[in-house]
Amino acid sequence: MQRMKLGDSGVSVSGVCLGTMTFGSQTAAAEAHAQMDRALDAGVSFLDTAEMYPVNPVRRETVGRSEEIVGDWLAARGNRDRVQIATKVTGPSGTVRAEGYDGAILRQTVDASLQRLRTDRIDLYQLHWPLRGSYAFRQNWRYDPSKQDRDATLAHMADVLEAAADLHRAGKIRAFGLSNESAWGTARWIDTAARLGAPRVVAIQNEYSALYRAFDTDLAELAVNERVTLLAYSPLAAGLLTGKYQDGAAPEASRAAVDLAHGGPGDLGGRRTDRAIAAVAAWSNLAAELGLDPIHMAIAFIRQRPFPAIPIVGATDRAQLDHLLAGLDLVLSDEALRRIDRLHRAHPQPY
Fold first, then answer.
1. Residue 62: pLDDT band by 50, 70, 90 thresholds?
2. Rounded distance, CA 159 to CA 106, Å?
3. Of the listed 53, 125, 208, 245, which one is catalytic?
4. What average pLDDT does this structure show over 201-222?
5. For a pLDDT cut of 90, what percent of the chain falls above it?
6. Number of Cβ within a 10 Å radius of residue 31
7. Hey, which of 48, 188, 235, 260 would disulfide with 86, CB 3.0 to 4.6 Å?
8. How far apart are CA 193 and CA 200, in angstroms?
């Protein structure tokens, strides 16, 4: 397994990350432990979680359960030095905390995550989404930053980064990252950290896949020039790129089926659109023409972007995980990459 450093930090991680957002909901603890065993055996040593997980849906009574499951596994296996753990503080939320986070809250949430994870350090601590708002989660269609207060935003960044600096000096966090951030926001976090001598942003966890390529322009330029590693979540477009949702299907225990069972629309967070279904059909056809598995092709595509990128893969069971892991040696040809770009031009941003 290829290893990468997060930005210019000393934190070295596997080139693929295992996501844990279903641990404690769709994925029971025993199955989650087996998945982490299997991933580590395959060289995937980087685990991503968050204080609010599990999701789909987020429920007040399960907040923190994913971290607890990871912590129980670390304690049972005694393998903390073999893995790297990323987790996140939640932004403004009706389920976790309405106010989101500031410096004082960050000191509390880090300690709480450390307790649940049963460890003395977090390798990468991330802000799940910004307080001022975000265009993530399909909010790009109506994004309006006109009421933002620049001075208040910069003061908030300074407050959070001063806390992050204290936590870094105490050895509680090794590196600092963002999630669902913009190019402007990331640049300001970097500038503010430099001014204060606080931990520099080394990673940004944003949505990225062959269907959703919002990162490809301004953020890609920032990532290269400022040495910020993309942790790409939803690399399979919430399962769309597997093809399992074609023709109106919602397989049992799938993300869409679980959402429907809890009274949701089953639209994969707004991703399941007519244009997306057409794009997935084109993706599947291209994979067949190239003689490739569409899932393996989707993960390889991210790993070969012209900016530092690590896909976060996730599975509800070991069979899905085994299938993902089986394709990690795939390297796409130049011709395959050119054809993927042509597909993107024909099916741009389908959701």
1. very high
2. 10
3. 53
4. 98
5. 93
6. 18
7. 48
8. 6
- Three-class HEC string of the chain: CCEEECCCCCCEEECCEEECCCECCCECHHHHHHHHHHHHHCCCCEEECCCCCCCCCCCHHHCCHHHHHHHHHHHHHCCHHHCEEEEEECCCCCCCCCCCCCHHHHHHHHHHHHHHHCCCCECEEEECCCCCCCCCCCHHHHCCCCCCCHHHHHHHHHHHHHHHHHHHHCCCECCEEEECCCHHHHHHHHHHHHHHCCCCEEEEEEECCCCCCHHHCHHHHHHHHHCCEEEEECCCCCCHHHCCCHHHCCCCCCHHHHHHHCCCCCCCCCCCCHHHHHHHHHHHHHHHHHCCCHHHHHHHHHHCCCCCEEEEECCCCHHHHHHHHHCCCCCCCHHHHHHHHHHHHHCCCCC
Measured between alpha carbons, how far is 162 from 158 in angstroms, rounded to an integer? 6
Given a contact cutoff of 8 angstroms between Cβ atoms, the answer to whether 314 and 19 are in contact is: yes
pLDDT at 298: 98
- Other C-beta atoms closer than 10 Å to the C-beta of 172 total 19
pLDDT tens digits, 256-266: 888 888 889 99
Percent of the chain with pLDDT over 70: 100
Give the count of beta carbons closer than 10 Å to the beta carbon of residue 245: 26
Query: Residue 125 catalytic?
Result: no
Mean pLDDT of 66-91: 98
In 10 A of CB 266, how many CB atoms?
17
**Segment 174-182 mean pLDDT:** 98
What pLDDT is attached to residue 240? Answer: 97
For residue 110, the Cα-to-chain-centroid distance in whole angstroms is: 19
**Crossing angle for the helix pair 29-41 and 318-326, nearest 10 degrees?**
20
Report the pLDDT value the prediction gives residue 311, as an integer from 0 to 100: 98
Q: Residue 234 — φ and ψ, nearest 5°?
A: 55, 50
Residue 259 has what pLDDT? Answer: 84
